[in-house]
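Amino Acid Chain and Its Fold in Token Form
===========================================
Scope: a single protein chain, as residues and as a discrete description of its fold.
Amino acid sequence: labelled as such and written in the usual single-letter residue code.
Position: the record begins directly beneath this header, with no further notes in between.
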Amino acid sequence: MAHTFEAQIGARGRIVLPAELRARHRWRQGERLRLIEDEDGTVHVMSVEEALERAKGLYAHLKPPGVSVVDEFLAERRAEATAE
């Protein structure tokens, strides 16, 4: 179910997000938010952390199941170090 909130643009373009919305997303004072505009003009607001998690999800299909990217990376670095 979608929720609708109103906010007003104030001095210097500032927007105060409604308390209910901030509480629901656990956004705190000073937290950096990312605004993403779709081609149709829809604007999505999320924390930078949320945006990073979504970005990870976009590329999850590239990682073979059961493979640790960290383990692969470390193995490559060890092989390079041994070769030197």
About this structure: Residues 69-83 form the longest helix (15 residues).
